Amino acid sequence: MQQTQWKTIEQGIQRLREMAVAEIVFSDDINTRNPDLVPCTPVMWRKLVRLGPQEYSSALAIMKRDETEETVLDMAKKLRTYADAVHGPTHARIAALETQVRGLADKIEENHKELKQDILQISAVQVRGSGTTRKRSLDREGKGIPRAKLWSFLRDCGENMRRWDGESTDAMTQRLHELLDGKTVRGSSSKKEAAPVTQGNKDNQA
């Protein structure tokens, strides 16, 4: 008989029945034609253990004692009981994990919908003027704006940074708000306001 390896418990039971059929054919001591009723000999069982997966070998080796008389059907029942004990909890854990994954997927989908609504609301607010948007951003950040960033903003707006040396962060934030609102009261902005007056004087002199 071909020594075929088996991987699952059901395949192992099938191999055991094939051995029983061989016993029926070649042994004169077997009085039955039913493979399940053939006595499972120690030789048959050791061969079954040897052909099976290594992970089962230890448990199967002690499953049958040499002195006990058990049929192939008896050993098939033991094998199935062993399979249920080993794989039953695993299947239960897998089913529980699948349930958790489905719940997590539903939660993610719900969060995506909420995030999409938030983005649409933010987009509706941002259709207003860019200066207003920037000012609102500053209002939200408040004192959280780093001083170095405030310094950079004021410098980019043309401020004379010497006068801001030593000034508080709140004062710098307020000045930036004024610049974003179009108010000009100090620094280089004052020079820009004086330019039209100078041009008017030139016209009068002409």
TrEMBL record:
Biased composition (Basic and acidic residues): 181-194
Organism annotation: Hirundo rustica rustica
GO terms classed as biological process: response to virus
Organism domain of life: Eukaryota
Protein name: Uncharacterized protein
GO terms for cellular component: Golgi apparatus
InterPro entries from the UniProt entry: Fv1_restriction_factor
Location of region: Disordered: 181-206
UniProt cross-references to PANTHER family, sorted A to Z: FRIEND VIRUS SUSCEPTIBILITY PROTEIN 1, RIKEN CDNA 2410002F23 GENE
Keywords per UniProt: Coiled coil
Coiled-coil regions, chain positions: 94-125
